[in-house]
Amino acid sequence: MKAAYRQYFIKAIEVNFPDRASGIITSVDNHFSKIYDDVSFAATSENPIDKRLDFSAYFLALIKTLDEQGESFELIRKVCLAVVTDYVRPRNKFQKVLKQLPAKLTNTWLASVVIKQFNKRISKNTNPGGFVANIITDKQETFGLGYGIDIYRVRNL
User: Fold this and answer.
1) What values do phi and psi take at 100, rounded to 5?
2) What residues contact 105, with CB distance under 8 A and at least 6 apart?
3) What is the distance between the alpha carbons of residues 146 and 136, in angstroms, rounded to a whole number?
4) Which residues does 43 contact at the CB level (< 8 Å), separation at least 6?
5) Is 65 exposed, middle or buried (0-12, 13-18, 19+ CB in 10 A)?
6) Quick one: residue 135, left, alpha or beta (phi over 0 = left, psi -120 to 50 = alpha)?
7) How far apart are alpha carbons 144 and 112 in whole angstroms?
8) What's the half-sphere exposure (Cβ side, CA atoms, 13 Å) at 122?
9) Is the pTM of this model over 0.70?
10) pLDDT digit string (tens) for 24-58?
11) Three-class SS state of 136
């Protein structure tokens, strides 16, 4: 497994566990290979939310590994937050602008068209193992954010 997101996990593991990083990475990869069978359909799913299942499965593999090794909840949380913070951090000014754009465009006519199309794609379950969700655009339902995703059906593994 050589997904692009894996580098962020490796970096966080190496920073937090420098003496045993390679063993932890091997264990995470082993757990992931077992979990991946249940989420491999996501690579070909038409639902965009399903596309992130392998990323989520890698998080689960990391959590399982660190839990088996007796690490505290606080440390597991710290490592997971380091992964996701580094993963979503804009790499340049252009990426920073792009990340801020959805929130700024939420209440425009263009956004309503895009949101409707996206909602059509995520509200259908094209795979029995996938997600079914709706886009929420009510500010009260999204804690003032203006947009969100309400996942109302997932597969039980």
Assistant:
1) -85, -20
2) 111
3) 8
4) 51, 54
5) buried
6) beta
7) 17
8) 22
9) yes
10) 999 999 999 999 988 888 888 887 778 888 899 99
11) strand
